[in-house]
Amino acid sequence: MSADYNQLLDATIQHLEGLKSRGVRHVAVTPETLRALASPVRPAAAVSFKAATPAVAPRTFSAPAPAAPMAKPIAAPVIAAKPEIAPVAFIPPPPVADKAAAFAALRERALACVKCPNLAAARQHVVFGVGNIDAQLMFVGEAPGADGDAQGEPFVGAAGQLLTKIIQATGLSRAEVYIANILKCRPDMPGQASGNRKPTPAEMETCIPYLHEQIDLIRPKVLVALGGTAVEGLLHKTGIMKLRGQWHEYRGIPLMPTYHPAYLLRYQAMAEKRRVWEDMLQVMEKLGMPISEKQRNFFTKA
After folding, report:
1. How far apart are CA 54 and CA 181, in angstroms?
2. Has this prediction a pTM greater than 0.90?
3. Comparing C-alpha atoms, which of 184, 226, 237, 186 is closest to residue 207?
4. Please, which of 4, 19, 101, 140 could form a disulfide with 24 given CB 3.0 to 4.6 Å?
5. Domain containing residue 148: CATH number
6. 228-235 and 201-218 are packed helices; what angle lies between their axes, rounded to 10 degrees?
7. Whether residue 187 sits in one domain with residue 139
8. Count: domains in the chain
9. In Å, how far from its chain's centre is CA 107?
């Protein structure tokens, strides 16, 4: 193989490893590319690779010029146009033979994680997640708070109690859904005895592969992203005020952004509570759950 081919191969492998480290598990490859890869390598062959994110620019390899002089001038080499980036159609992974065992193994890996040394040093517990691993509905929050860090379970403080009430108002119990966070460790607060901070982009990127695997194993029918950080982590979008109440999609799963329960504790206006409940009514409809008149009229004036 030529040196150029080896360089392109090394760059492609590095790019794929980078995608894998960011949680990307499937990359679209055109049939033409597969046929080209299956063919013997020739110096003049040009290989086109299409990925979900910008990949290494394709190169055109030219055959060596003949030793004898040519009668006509050598035409300038034609540089192939950069192919358009093809969107990736997410293909769900096949169901595992033993979901419970796979989930337990994932949990053990997360509990032993020390990829963020500052968080590992400050935490009391890794807050992996809680609920039914066969749930049709999954909630994703931001990160553990002080109560979650102390108990090892997400949403157990005041915001968690409010989330439990919201779940119960739909007719479900907390045990029937699954609850997790973007971050499995509480963001450290050096020099402060209380308070919370938003996870950094680096912390989110490091930790979110665990959440990707949880979602792949659970395969919920609907995801609810609680707050701006959860939306940012799952959809790479910002602006919870304009995104909430509208259906989005996460890897083939309908996703509803809504306000974090902590927001409702700070701003207890009836209108804000009504907006969150309207989002949950849409979730119930998507799941095919029965909705009573009483449920439809929550937080409305008589």
Report:
1. 29
2. no
3. 184
4. 19
5. 3.40.470.10
6. 70
7. yes
8. 2
9. 17
- pLDDT tens digits, 41-99: 444 333 333 333 333 333 333 444 444 554 555 555 555 554 444 445 556 666 777 99
Most distant CA pair in the chain: distance in Å?
95
Nearest to 257 by CA among 285, 237, 284, 273: 237
| Torsional class of 150: left (φ above 0), alpha (ψ -120 to 50), beta (otherwise) | alpha
Segment 275-290 shows an average pLDDT of: 97
Determine the average pLDDT of the residues in 212-221: 97
Domain boundary among 58, 89, 120: 89
Q: How far apart are CA 186 and CA 124, in angstroms?
A: 9
94 domain-assigned: no
Query: Which amino acid would we find at residue 206?
Result: T
Can you give the three-state secondary structure of the chain, one letter per residue? CCHHHHHHHHHHHHHHHHHHHCCCCCCCCCHHHHHHHHCCCCCCCCCCCCCCCCCCCCCCCCCCCCCCCCCCCCCCCCCCCCCCCCCCCCCCCCCCCCHHHHHHHHHHHHHCCCCCHHHHHHCCCCCCCEECCCCCEEEEECCCCHHHHHHCCCCCCHHHHHHHHHHHHCCCCHHHCEEEECCCCCCCCCCCCCCCCCCCHHHHHHHHHHHHHHHHHHCCCEEEEECHHHHHHHHCCCCHHHHCCCCEEECCEEEEEECCHHHHHHCCCHHHHHHHHHHHHHHHHHHCCCCCHHHHCCCCCC
Q: Which residue has the tokens 């792949």?
A: 216
Angle at 219 between CA 213 and CA 225, to 5 degrees: 80
Of residues 253, 230, 256, the one with CA closest to residue 245: 256
